[in-house]
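This part of the workshop introduces the protein records we will be handling. A learned vocabulary of local backbone shapes supplies the integers on the structure line. Getting from the letters to the tokens is the skill we practise here. As an example, a complete record with its sequence and its structure tokens follows.
=====
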Amino acid sequence: MGRRRGIMSDEFKYELAKDLGFYDTVKNEGWGEIRARDAGNMVKRAIEIAQQHMAQDENQR
């Protein structure tokens, strides 16, 4: 079974890690070393951004 392709680009994930304050951990130790709370916050923030973009798109119609 192959590895699943992620929904978020690597660039976006690194941007979120920087914004949320755990980029140094990712850079130095890899994604496997972030805390579960940080991963959850990253997903939560990605959802918030997606919802904002959807609302903007809806308002432009």
Notes: The helical segments are 10-20, 23-29, 36-59. The longest helix spans residues 36-59.
